[in-house]
Amino acid sequence: MFYNHVQQHFDLRKVVTHIEKVMNDKTLLQINELCAYLGIGETKARELLKLPRNGFSLKIGAKWYAHKERLDSWLLEQCDKY
């Protein structure tokens, strides 16, 4: 049983490492990825994406995305305001 628990822990670490790599390599973040990246809920993520002239939102068809690099720049600008 202990071995099984240890094995699950290492498998989970592999999954987390893979997710972090994918998130770092992505240019566009979907809403669920934006939520995870910022640690916010879906409602707030949608509000941020729909802010006029925020510079990081992109709508393709019916789906909203955040351009990760531009989002990071926008976040730094917001930090400088306060």
Multimeric state: single chain
Shape: globular
State the separation between the terminal residues, measured CA to CA.
51 Å
The number of distinct β-strands equals 3
- Helix-strand topology string: HEHHEEH
The average pLDDT score comes to 84
Q: What is the CA-atom radius of gyration, in angstroms? A: 16 Å
- Which strand order does the major sheet show? 1-3-2
Protein model, in words:
By secondary structure, this protein is α+β, with helices and mostly antiparallel strands. 66% of the residues lie in helices and 13% in strands. The chain has helices spanning 2-25, 31-38, 42-49, 68-81; strands at residues 28-29, 57-60, 63-67. Strands 1-3-2 form a three-stranded antiparallel sheet. Strand 2 and strand 3 (63-67) form a beta hairpin. Helix 2 crosses helix 3. The longest helix has 24 residues, at 2-25. The mean pLDDT is 84.
Short recap of the structure:
By secondary structure, this protein is α+β, with helices and mostly antiparallel strands. It is built from four helices and three strands; from the N terminus they run H-E-H-H-E-E-H.
Write the layout of secondary structure elements.
Layout: H1 2-25, E1 28-29, H2 31-38, H3 42-49, E2 57-60, E3 63-67, H4 68-81
Features:
globular; three-stranded antiparallel sheet; 13% strand; alpha+beta; 3 strands; 82 residues; single chain
